[in-house]
Amino acid sequence: MAADLNTWADASAIARTIQEDAYFVIRESYQLPNLITQFNDMSGGNIRKSYKYNQAVATPIAETDDLISAAFTPSADQTLTPAEIGHMFFVTDLRRDSDLPENIITDAALELGLAAGDKVSTDIYGDFASLTGGSVGTAGATASTPTWGLVAAAIAQARMASKSSSVPLACVLHAYHWAYIAKGASIAGATVATAPGYIDEITRTGYVATFLGVPIYQIYPAVTGTSGTARAFGAVFPRSALAIDWRRPIRVEAQRDASLRGTEFAMSAVYAHGIWRPALGVSLTMAADTPTS
To answer: Are 290 and 230 in contact (CB under 8 A)?
Structure first.
């Protein structure tokens, strides 16, 4: 007679599943709003407009010329139009009491906040293409390979647009842009360049805080196009080039539904975003294929 060996297979169908804590989808860091102009002085849906004076031009005059007054009147420039965003989770009491090791109440609230932050960052990133102070690089099948030279050109154009070398600028690059230019300036590059301190810093940390006196920030939005034609925007700009106008900050509210035995968690925000002084910012369009070597 065969012995009953009592194996795992005998009990696997009724064995308890070991559930590890659920994890969140990776999100973009919420840094772009901190690099641009923020308005917090209004509520409601009224649009906000900027106005721009006409530029005076001095001309030579003769000793006996009688000066004639010229117009000096502001005209409408940019418009920010508020819109509302939102999302909601409904959580039943039974789900709330059964979720272990997760805490769905705190996790749901956090996820809603992250979703709002994602939307805000994506909106601001989309405004890069509307900057008019200059453009560097090309898109399409011949998208420009990211180089320090292109970044330097964008910085130079932005300084020219501001007609100042002291106006603080920010340089925002896609992570894949940074991968290509950092590789060329580290020991991973095919050649060794000058500025050994710069090379050493990139090689050791994968990052440098500034280039030509301008802070560098990495962002991680989805690229446009497919392999071989993938591209992404970057930008160099002062704070005043772009703006976000908060009418109602991001909020997550809970509302109990006793008859349905659960709770609604609703996220909403009202804000406007867009170019504000676009002639001061420079857009960068460079290849953004996934680095493979």
So the answer is: yes
- pTM for this model (two decimals): 0.83
For the stretch 224-280, pLDDT in tens is: 888 778 899 999 999 999 999 999 999 999 999 999 999 999 999 999 999 999 999
Q: How far is CA 178 from CA 139, 186, 195, 201, 283, in A?
A: 17, 12, 18, 14, 15
**Inter-residue contact 242 to 127 (CB < 8 Å):** yes
Measure the CA angle with vertex 152, ends 147 and 158; round to 5°.
135
The domain limits of the chain are: 49-54+71-287
Nearest partner of 89 among 242, 208, 206, 262, judged by Cα: 262
Element (H, E) at 184: helix 175-184
CA pair distance 155, 293, nearest whole angstrom: 28
pLDDT in tens, 88-136: 999 999 988 887 777 888 888 888 989 999 999 999 999 999 999 999 9
In angstroms, the CA 286 to CA 157 distance is 16
